[in-house]
Amino acid sequence: MVDIAERPARLAAPAAVPPPASAGPGPTRPARLLGLGGRALHRSAALLALAAGWEAVPRAGLVDRVFLPPLSEVLTAWWALLRGGQLADHVGASLTRSLTGLALAVLTAIPLGLLIGWYRPLADLLSPLLEVFRNTAALALLPVFVLILGLGETSKIALVLYACSWPILLNTIAGVKGVDPLLIRSARSMGLNHLRLFQKVILPAAVPTIFTGVRLAGAYSILVLVAAEMVGAKAGLGYLINYAQYNFAIPDMYAGIITISAIGLIVNQLLVAGERRFSTWRVDPTA
């Protein structure tokens, strides 16, 4: 019998595996800042190109600078309006009307859309009426709102409410109807009643689509309001643009237009942040 000690060396314990090399140090703070700066520059490249073109084209004489002044002159007029307090007054008036109409649309259209999307009898009852009004442009009804509600704040807020309700309502209905039937069957097999099913499955699954409608409504609230403020208003960005055009204050007119664009961008970013807050479970496919 061969003793264990006389076995070949190939049966000896295997050599120890060397530990993996430690990972190198993470990116330094300047490198991270440089990366963030590069991403910010990449995202704003189109806006910077637009600003450069706006400044260069009128100065080169390609267009009449009376009708399209350079961007620097527009920004100077914008700063003068801001320092004089006029811009703040007009922005405050427009935001009050826009946000009031948008808030009322959210409070009314989302519950109604949830009910229509969840209860088929209600959807069958209201669908013909919805199809009639959804194809009627909000600005086409501006004279009707003015005739019924007058030239005051009520008609403008009501017009914003009408314009904002449709994207929210239709996207809410689509979000409820677009929930995966497998999720609904699985939840019912686990014994969830109608209320818990709606709370735990339907509503969370419809949140991204609902927020898409709210984002569209946020853009509509500003666009429709500006058009409404050009009729019978004493303050607001639409009034500012119209007044500047009639008085041939072209830089002031473009300053109002830039302000509207900036407000729309800020509102959209706030709504995107809200969507991420209320749909943290959602996986970003582009990540």
UniProtKB/TrEMBL annotation:
Checking PROSITE patterns in the record gives:
ABC_TM1 (PS50928)
Please name the InterPro entries in this protein's record: MetI-like (IPR000515), MetI-like_sf (IPR035906)
Coiled coil regions, renumbered to chain: none
Q: Which residues form the ABC transmembrane type-1 domain?
A: 91-271
Its membrane topology, per UniProt?
Answer: Multi-pass membrane protein
Transmembrane ranges, per UniProt, are 99-120, 132-152, 159-177, 221-241, 253-272
Keywords attached to this entry: Cell membrane, Membrane, Transmembrane, Transmembrane helix, Transport
Subcellular localization: Cell membrane
Instruction: Spell out the Pfam families in the cross-references.
Output: BPD_transp_1
> Which family is this protein grouped under?
Belongs to the binding-protein-dependent transport system permease family.
Which PANTHER family has this protein been placed in?
ABC TRANSPORTER PERMEASE PROTEIN, ALKANE SULFONATE ABC TRANSPORTER-RELATED, MEMBRANE SUBUNIT
- Please report the name of this protein according to its UniProt entry: ABC transporter permease
